[in-house]
């Protein structure tokens, strides 16, 4: 069967589509991906469902923000290298400008009761949203007892203070090696637990003084190694910027997460907010470039290899391990952030009601955040 001729899309059309999505796409990566599928498959018929799934699968094999990388893949497929840059930038920039405006207001007016009230109401909802994502991702990622054991081990090692990068990398390597051994010998791979002990040795990071270059390198590292979900970003930020380097407080981290959830577009623009809080407009620019640059590079490098990569059982096994370890890291951070967000009876009630609405009735998270923000504002303006 001959392949259907592929019609290229103009850069202007790509730009308009992804600028609109970047301005209006609330709800996190899953919602973004659904909106893109509706636009490029159902409405515009730029590609088939199978072709769209190929691109989506490719984003799961490389680190970085999945929905942003999917936008970059679509741009590259529709308009080549210029399309790669236009689609990705158009999807990211609206959120960057909106988050920067929020960051300016936060730095300028953050101590006002009205702003404090909004964040007071939103933070418990953020914890529930992360828990819901953790539950949903866990049901997909933990497919076997072996992967469940890897997740529990990752949880224990993270609580013990092992560096999160080692946990992620070692989990991927162990599961990939286990897959190789299972294919060759058909033996149980429980003995591979010993490999984990070799890889997962504590590796505490030295304290670092703040500067734009260290800020850029930190977010470049995060954008280069982060698998699983945008929510895993919280793990890296808390581990380095809060715990190790003390550039941020726990409260500032929660506020950054809240703003990232309250605004459309990629969750990774949380980095833009943090960059502005730490270093003003230049800090926002540096952090944004650092965290999104790897996505463009990885898509450019992996795009032509997508068919072969997706068929590799070893690459799939590595990602299975990385994903369950990422869930373990998310669970630890959610617990730690929950202690800072659930500070009284009111915040606990907000969290419980949000959990019922989100888990039972599947209310859109954007509405929950808006409602909690309004409630918090009303409580603090009495």
Characterization of this structure:
This protein is mainly α and 382 residues long. It has one domain. The protein is 77% helix and 0% strand. The chain contains 16 helices and no strands. Helix 2 packs across helix 4, helix 5 packs across helix 15 and helix 6 packs across helix 14. The longest helix has 44 residues. The N terminus is likely disordered.
Number of H/I helices: 16
Helix content: over 70%
Distance between the termini: 70 Å
- Main sheet overview: none
Q: How many domains in all? A: 1
Q: What would the keywords be for this entry?
A:
disordered N terminus, single chain, 382 residues, mainly alpha
Please give the structural blueprint:
Blueprint: H1 11-24, H2 29-43, H3 49-59, H4 66-109, H5 113-141, H6 145-159, H7 164-185, H8 193-199, H9 212-225, H10 233-244, H11 250-262, H12 270-302, H13 306-310, H14 313-341, H15 345-360, H16 365-380
Helix pairs in contact: 1-4, 2-4, 3-4, 4-12, 5-11, 5-14, 5-15, 5-16, 6-7, 6-14, 7-8, 7-14, 9-12, 11-12
Short description:
The protein is mostly helical and 382 residues long. The chain is 77% helix and 0% strand.
């Amino acid at each position: 069967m001959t392949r259907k001729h592929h019609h290229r899309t103009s850069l202007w059309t790509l730009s308009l589509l992804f600028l609109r999505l970047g301005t209006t796409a609330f709800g996190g990566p899953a919602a973004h991906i659904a909106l893109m599928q509706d636009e490029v498959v159902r409405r515009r018929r730029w590609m088939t469902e199978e072709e769209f799934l190929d691109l989506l699968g490719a984003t799961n094999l490389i680190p970085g923000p999945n929905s942003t990388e999917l936008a970059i893949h679509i741009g590259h497929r529709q308009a080549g290298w210029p399309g790669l840059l236009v689609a990705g930038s158009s999807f990211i920039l609206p959120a960057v400008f909106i988050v920067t405006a929020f960051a300016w207001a936060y730095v300028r007016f953050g101590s006002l009761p009205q702003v404090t009230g909004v964040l007071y109401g939103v933070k418990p909802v953020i914890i529930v949203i992360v828990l819901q994502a953790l539950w949903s991702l866990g049901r997909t990622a933990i497919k076997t007892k072996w992967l469940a054991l890897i997740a529990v081990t990752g949880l224990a090692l993270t609580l013990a203070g092992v560096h999160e990068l080692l946990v992620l990398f070692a989990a991927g390597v162990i599961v990939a090696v286990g897959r190789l051994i299972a294919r060759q010998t058909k033996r149980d791979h429980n003995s591979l637990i010993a490999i984990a002990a070799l890889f997962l040795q504590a590796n505490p990071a030295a304290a670092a003084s703040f500067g734009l270059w260290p800020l850029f390198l930190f977010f470049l590292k995060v954008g280069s190694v982060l698998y699983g979900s945008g929510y895993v970003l919280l793990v890296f930020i808390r581990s380095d910027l809060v715990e190790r380097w003390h550039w941020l407080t726990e409260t500032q981290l929660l506020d950054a997460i809240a703003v990232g959830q309250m605004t459309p577009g990629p969750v990774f623009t949380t980095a833009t907010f943090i960059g502005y809080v730490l270093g003003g407009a230049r800090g926002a620019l540096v952090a944004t470039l650092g965290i999104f640059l790897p996505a463009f590079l990885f898509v450019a490098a992996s795009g032509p290899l997508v068919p072969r990569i997706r068929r590799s059982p070893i690459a799939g096994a590595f990602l299975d391990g990385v994903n369950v370890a990422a869930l373990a890291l998310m669970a630890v951070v959610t617990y730690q952030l929950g202690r800072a967000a659930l500070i009284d009876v009111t915040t606990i009630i907000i969290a419980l009601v949000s959990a019922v609405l989100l888990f039972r009735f599947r209310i859109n998270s954007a509405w929950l955040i808006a409602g909690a923000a309004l409630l918090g504002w009303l409580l603090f303006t009495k």
